[in-house]
Here is the input.
Amino acid sequence: MTGLALRHIGKTFGQTRVLHDVSLEAGDGEFVVLLGPSGCGKSTLLRIIAGLERQTGGSVSIGGRCVDDVPPSERDIAMVFQHYALYPHFTVRENLAFGLKIRREPTPVIEERLAETASLLDIDNLLDRRPKELSGGQRQRVAMGRAIVRKPALFLFDEPLSNLDARLRASMRVELKKLHRRLGTTMVYVTHDQAEAMTLGHTIAIMNHGRIQQTGRPDRIYQEPGNPFVAGFIGNPPMNLFEGSYRLHPRDLEFRVGDLTVRIPFQAHDLVGTESGTATLGIRPEDVTFDPPGPRHVAIAGTIDLIENLGGDAVVYLTVKGQSLAARTVPGLRQHAGESVTAHWPMNALHLFINEHRVPLPSS
Amino acid sequence: MTNRPALLGGMLLAVLGSLCPFLWFVLTSFKSQIQVEAIPPTWWPDGSLAFYTSALVEHRLFHYVRNSVVVAGATTIIVLAVATPAAYALARLRLPGKAWILGGLLCVAMFPPIVMAGPVWQILERLGGLNTHWGLVLPYVSLSLPLAVWILTVFFQELPFELEEAARIDGCTTWQTLSKVLLPLATPGLFTAAILTFIYAWNEFFFALLILTNPDQQTLPVGIALFQGEFTMPWGEIAAASVVATLPLIIVVLLFQRGIINGLSAGAVKG
Here is the structure.
């Protein structure tokens, strides 16, 4: 059974089109992350799933039932908002019980669910406090509790961790993952934080300009980004992308940007229709090394501009043949800023994009 | 930092300045007739309650208090009942020309009453509203609605929209969202609107004088003004009556002030 199915969702606000033909499926119990920069339409999509916003085209099904004309309260969903949206005039207990009371659940059921949720989230000792007496992390727990207590078929999260500091965010991320494993409910999670997306999601849907750019498993999206946007969005520091031109030769493809020329072993491919044109070449910073090259490596001399030591690893920014390049490496590089160095990368770590599409390169 | 004694002095001066007339008529109300007319004036009263007895018994003061309570109370209730949904709609719905509606309301609130006196009188005469309480409540409601709508609109606008959405997902109808979530959070706004409306209706003199000519219906301000005879000016009774007229206002404000503070302290929405 499908947990959630979005079919050809479109949305316009006045003259502005914010969603274009978005289709997405989430299996029962799956954790789907909508990831994208701010303004990409991911929150609007979540609000359409919740029924808080009406789509201009397409349809939404939850648990196999079309819910286009169903109000939010009857969609069997619960939502955790970015600013928690706890009722300030209620205690934690009343906040948790409110949805059940409105639905006229019998008191023993409410009490039982309340106790269950409170112990699950470890908020038993907070039940008689009001939201303003809680810390950010505690409010976050209560907000999740309010969603869990209703036992919905689908959880929706709208950037729930974005108001927390980095440390708390990391620990809440772990808890959220455990929580999902325990509950086994379908979850849709909106975020602009790629670390959250990579760690939480079974499936990530990357959005930009109101379109889904790529959907897939986190590792797959990382290893085989479908277009330059995804390539540049996933990874930290982002992938080095060079926009230049290509020319096909019988056995290889020559890529050129400024003074930098790279020849890549290449076999003819459907995606490359013409002999030459513009292309984008990408290399992840973690694939760039300063060790002596192995076979089928590209080696280019450059100058170090800056070294950022992050403790566990270091990011080296350098200029090679007039192009900026970032490399992630272990700290302790012998050279310093201003000195020359030779950067290497394996040929099979390159990513090539032509006409905004990934062109598979033969693996070595 | 700043000069504290000077600030304190300025504050005291302002408070004393505004309290002075009030203190003077409180003192006067406890004087005897001889003390009131004495030249040079005596400051400290001898504690006589003669003026109170006279105001309450001879001038039927409680009768006017009752009329004022009815008129001001009804005005406040009706204004809140109408202004709350109106303000909610103005704060939340995507209405065409919303700025014009709010601007128009402000214009109405700035109309000088004298401009409306003739038409209001004629309308009420046709409707049979002269010398009735509802005939007075009607213009009071229309004159105090704009301010109440403005105050409440601002309060509703400041409440986070997420709360309403959370309530909708929790299963609330629009009415439940308003009554269980938004109104409790807008209490400071409700109290402010209520106090201002009540004070306006309690003190209003012009329309009350125009519409109510029958002493049985008259409200406090008109009643007190008419204490004065053709050749007499009963200062003592007027002072006593003014004290009695002001007390309910002070009580109402103190009561509502607690509500305002409670409402404010409950308002913390996000962290």
